[in-house]
Each structure stands twice: as structure tokens, then as C-alpha cells.
Specification:
alpha+beta; 4 helices
Length: 334
């Protein structure tokens, strides 16, 4: 390719400034160095004076202790507590000092209201503890257990009821108790009263009976609910019953309840199918779900075992002394 004359002149270095331009920066740099040396020499030996401290030489005095030189008295020896009773003047006034300022009748009404609202009020509760169907053991049936109370912190009236029967059949037995319950401590109540049994239809067609009742009910250590009672019938028969249960919370709503019940008798009662000694044991597990605290359906399993002469009476009547039952029921209270 042939280049134009102007381009060819440029490629061959025809521009005379290309050879001189690199020396210009070198010359300028040397000039600045020669001027800087004399200027720096003018300041050699000069020293900058620091400003004087206005507090230099001043002596700071330590603050004096206002308690310096004070002598603390020695601690007194142990002073015995006064042993005498309060002076008679302490009891000279009225029993209720507010009665001097306000009408006594108004203050008496106010004190009674305060007593009721701070533990002296009357409370009540009804508990349907078990309303369940029992499937197995040769015959399907139902069971109920309910109780309620009315009263204060110390004394209450308790009403208890339980019974059972067969689906499609007559009521086998029912029990009703009316008890006076008196607190004997923070956790237990002493219960005294009467019990009446209805037996419209039993295996041996036993009679109805009335009983005197004495027992305790309450909360044992580790939150076991205990109900133990002795019964003396109008025929002179002495029996006893022990019940214990425990609520084990699996979640805030799901609760597993183990429960055990045992019955005892002082002598044989063939007309009721009950033998002397330990006659029966019931042990079960119930798993309930509290839709709300007052309403909880449940399912469970229960093992029942008749022992000794009671087992013999059960076999003689055509029953099974050892049985397993499936449970489905409801627990409610208000």
C-alpha cells in the first residue's frame, strides 16, 4: 500500500518536536529542586514554642473528709428482747378503732363483706367425673360417677353418686352419699355422713342398704388425688374403699390419667357377692382431651380382677373374675 506524502512524513519522524519534548519535564524538575534547597535552609534551627499551661505550678488540694477524726461508738452488747406482755393501755381502746370515726353498724357490715370476699365466701362445683361406656367382659354397659359440693373453705356439703348398668337392661346398682366435709389441713378433708345403695337388679338380687360413712379426701404429695372411706351398713357389715388417681399432662390439652380402686370387706356377704378381705381391684388408664377445661372426652382401658371369695361368687353367678374393658366417655364440670 502506498502512503500519502503527509502520512509518510509523519512515520519517518519528520516532526522536529518529537525529539525535544521529553527534555522539558526534566528541566522543570531540576529547576524546582534548586529553588527548594535555599528555602528549606532558611528554617533550619527554628523551634516552635508550645503554649504555656495556665495551671502550671498550681498545687491541687485534696478534699477533706467531713467525718475525719470522728470516733464511732462501740456496738452495744446484745439487748434481750422484752419478755413482758403488752401494757394494759394497749387494750384499753375499742375492739375496732374505726368505730370511733364511723357508725359502728356501717363498719360491722364492711368487715363482714371483707370476710366473705377474702375466703369466707360460699362456693360450689359440680363434677361429672366419669360418664363412660364399657365394652368387653362379656356384657357391654355404662358407668357414671358424679359429685358436687357447696360451702366455704373449712366446711362443705358434699354429694356423691355412682352407678352402673347394662345397655338395653335394667340399672344394676346405684349409690348416693351426703357428707359433711371439714378441712383438717391444707390438703385433706375429713368427711362424715350417710350412704344409700339401690340395687333394683343384681346378680344375686341383693337388698338395698344404708350406711354410715367416715373417710378422708384430698391431695397427697406429688398431686395424687385420694379418696378413702369406711362404711358401716344397717346390717352391721363393715366395708371400705380406696381410690387414687393422677393427672399426667402430656400437653396443655392432652392428659393421661392412671386410676386405681380397691374394695375391702370385714366378712363374707354372699347376698351381695362380696367375700372377706380384699375383694376387687380396678386399674385403668384414661386419655382425655380438654376441648375446654370444663369439657373433655376420653378413651381408655381398664383391668378388673375379683379376688378370693368374691371371685368364687362371680364364677358361681356365671361371670368372669378377670376381665379387660375398653372405655369411651366424657368428663365435665361447672
Amino acid at each position: 500500500m502506498r502512503l500519502s506524502p503527509h502520512r509518510r512524513h509523519s512515520r519517518e519522524g519528520g516532526n522536529p518536536w518529537r525529539r525535544t519534548v521529553p527534555w522539558i519535564p526534566v528541566f522543570a524538575g531540576m529547576t524546582m529542586v534548586f529553588w527548594a534547597v535555599p528555602l528549606q535552609a532558611q528554617h533550619v534551627g527554628h523551634q516552635t514554642e508550645e503554649p504555656a499551661d495556665p495551671h502550671s505550678g498550681h498545687q491541687m488540694e485534696e478534699p477533706t473528709d467531713p467525718h475525719a477524726g470522728h470516733a464511732m461508738p462501740d456496738a452495744p452488747a446484745d439487748i434481750p428482747a422484752p419478755q413482758s406482755a403488752p401494757p394494759p393501755e394497749a387494750f384499753a381502746g375499742p375492739e375496732h378503732a374505726a368505730d370511733r370515726l364511723f357508725p359502728p353498724a356501717d363498719m360491722s357490715a364492711a368487715r363482714e363483706q371483707m370476710r366473705r370476699e377474702h375466703g369466707g365466701m360460699t362456693t360450689r362445683k359440680f363434677m361429672l367425673d366419669r360418664l363412660e361406656a364399657r365394652i368387653g367382659g362379656g356384657e357391654d354397659g355404662y358407668v357414671w360417677e358424679a359429685n358436687g359440693w357447696l360451702g366455704g373453705d373449712i366446711d362443705k356439703l358434699w354429694i356423691k353418686s355412682e352407678g352402673e348398668g347394662a345397655f338395653g337392661g335394667a340399672l344394676e346398682e346405684a349409690e348416693f352419699q351426703a357428707l359433711w366435709s371439714h378441712a383438717i389441713g391444707p390438703w385433706f378433708d375429713l368427711q362424715l355422713g350417710a350412704r344409700y345403695d339401690l340395687r333394683p337388679h343384681t346378680v344375686l338380687d341383693g337388698p338395698d342398704r344404708a350406711h354410715l360413712v367416715a373417710g378422708i379426701q384430698g391431695l397427697a404429695p406429688y398431686f395424687f388425688e385420694i379418696d378413702a372411706a369406711a362404711f358401716l351398713s344397717d346390717e352391721g357389715d363393715l366395708t371400705a374403699r380406696f381410690e387414687a388417681e393422677y393427672d399426667q399432662r402430656l400437653t396443655q390439652r392432652l392428659i393421661l390419667q392412671p386410676r386405681i380402686e380397691a374394695g375391702f370387706a370385714a366378712r363374707d356377704m354372699p347376698e351381695l357377692g362380696i367375700g372377706a378381705g380384699l375383694g376387687e381391684i380396678e386399674a385403668g388408664l384414661r386419655l382425655r382431651y380438654e376441648i375446654v377445661p370444663e369439657f373433655a372426652p376420653y378413651i381408655g382401658l381398664e383391668w378388673q380382677r375379683d379376688i378370693g371369695d368374691t371371685a368364687d361368687y362371680t364364677r358361681a353367678a356365671g361371670g368372669d373374675p378377670d376381665r379387660w374393658l375398653f372405655l369411651a366417655g366424657l368428663r365435665a364440670w361447672f
